[in-house]
């Protein structure tokens, strides 16, 4: 990799919550500080780094808290979904800001880091709205689910025998509303945290007004979108595995160092990547690499990020 690349870094769930059962903010702050080490490794090497991240567990927790409060006191209104997404961007961004700032200070790096509350435009006719699939928030029994469907108009589905859960759409990201300011900050040398949780999904109404919609955009696709807009050199998707595999979790499992676009598409056809986990990452990587000649995508683990961009590990698409 050439020195001083522009890199969009998409942080997976393990970068924000080390133990999915430990949802305390204090623990998430500790994890964010650990995650900052890998991020600052890239900043220290002179790269321009833009950080994106998921929010599935965190937005679910925020919603569950409001739901629980409303159950004990019906006077408390349930917070609308886009507002919950915005809250998750705010607090995750705050944790990352603290971690990155501290790590930069420890290494004598004089840079600023800030989170942009980011809205992402989706199409109100996106087919995802017809078939919401992304489960969020707490579990209900069938009776509670029926009441919520009637009273609030939620779509609630049975989730793998575990109970009933609200499901929201996961539409495709089309544009990032705050892109111009993100670009200005990046070009001024600042570290920006953006499209948290895939961004707050908004639709364009008549006269161009924006309206938040109850949906969760996939953070890998939103990261790809902002990487394209910012004309990044690299999209790096950091997750829990060092390399993408074919025949994943079978005795024939084979880790991949590289994938051409043709190979990646063939592996998708053959069903090697699980929907909802590795599949969106590989699709986002393909889209980014196809968007302009010379662009590269890397999928690797947080711990291996530095080695990955040095070409020593991870799975690269180019
Ligand atoms: N073909 C594959 N190769 C590698 N990992 C895979 C594959 N298919 C599914 N996975 C799983 O996908 C996980 C990454 O998805 P997920 O945990 O949803 O992402 P995130 O890091 O964004 O939270 C990996 O940790 C691994 O368990
Ligand atoms: N928005 C989103 O894709 O979040 P997760 O990565 O946490 O599922």
Can you offer a commentary on this structure?
- The chain has helices at residues 25-44, 56-72, 81-106, 142-152, 179-187, 219-229, 261-269, 278-291, 305-309; strands at residues 6-11, 48-53, 113-115, 119-121, 134-140, 156-158, 164-168, 175-176, 191-193, 200-204, 210-212, 234-239, 245-246, 254-255, 258-259, 296-301, 315-317.
- The chain is of the alpha/beta class and 318 residues long.
- A hairpin with a 7-residue loop joins strand 13 (245-246) and strand 14 (254-255).
- Helix 2 (56-72) crosses helix 3.
- Bound molecules: adenosine-5'-diphosphate and phosphoric acid mono(formamide)ester.
- Phosphoric acid mono(formamide)ester is lined by residues 13, 54-56, 197-198, 216, 218-219.
- Phosphoric acid mono(formamide)ester (CP) binds at residues 13, 54-56, 197-198, 216, 218-219.
- It catalyses: hydrogencarbonate + NH4(+) + ATP = carbamoyl phosphate + ADP + H2O + H(+).
Features:
single chain; 318 residues; alpha/beta; Carbamate kinase; 8-stranded mixed β-sheet; 4-stranded mixed β-sheet; 38% helix; globular; binds adenosine-5'-diphosphate; binds phosphoric acid mono(formamide)ester
Distinct small molecules: adenosine-5'-diphosphate, phosphoric acid mono(formamide)ester
The 3D shape can be described as globular
How many DSSP helices? 9
- Name the assembly state: single chain
Structural class: alpha/beta
Question: Any idea what the CATH superfamily is called?
Answer: Acetylglutamate kinase-like
Which CATH class?
Alpha Beta
Percentage of residues in DSSP E strands: 15-25%
- How are the strands of the biggest sheet laid out side by side? 3-9-2-1-12-16-17-15
